[in-house]
Design goal:
single chain, 269 residues, Glucose Oxidase, domain 1, eight-stranded mixed sheet, three-stranded parallel sheet, 8 helices, 15 strands
Length: 269
Amino acid sequence: MTNMITPNIPHVRMDGEKLIERRLSDSELLELRRWNTPTIFNGWEQITRHNPTTEGINLEECRDFMPQMGAMVGYAVTVTIEPGNPEHRRRNPNAWSEYREYIASVPGPKIVVVQDLDKPRTLGAFWGEVNSNIHRALGCVGTIIDGGIRDLEEMNNAGFKAIARRLCVGHGFDTPVAWGGEVEVFGRRVCPGQLIHADKHGFLVVPKEDEARLLEAARYMDHLECKHLIAAARNVAGKLIHQILQQVNEAARQMNAEAKERFGRRTEW
């Protein structure tokens, strides 16, 4: 028996009879990691047709338990768990090995997105020292879990980043229930294969059609902020308040004009 759901991987193309995923290059993913998630969001909102206030981002509070690791970037692999229910282990005693085969079959870097069906209760932790090391060996860089984690120091030692709801003492009946399908974590639906950028501020699940221009947009918006508004706010020595206000207003005007020319829309300023 297998509980794997056929994944709906959004970024694929047909090459003859071979199905090939189109992903960002390693260098592009590395560069995306150099910025925090709000900076990536600022670029994303300039290029997306989605509503940036209700789509893409987590809608519920989550906590980064490894903020010192900085941002993590990867493609989603998904699993649901129900640590409070012992029946799943009885129904499929091979669930762990089958689930690990699924994880191993997907190219990295991967972020494991876990929906805990016990929510709002936390009855056991899917993640600890052992599972973090195993998933790191299988090309996963971290997890977003709408539930608990444990062995915090050991997870840090494994280099496995976790964004979760809380810490937890026990593991419960933490058998994987189903994997490779759509899940919901912190109010956000996530499909396998979606690009995720996450840090201590939260996470962004990037729509497939926005992936290609994401890095360019983030670079450009960060450049505009430094060039105009931040420069105007810092170059104020010896100036009167009305001069500072005039300077900032002019910087905002120039920034909006350049953003509109590049992306067809103005900025938040």
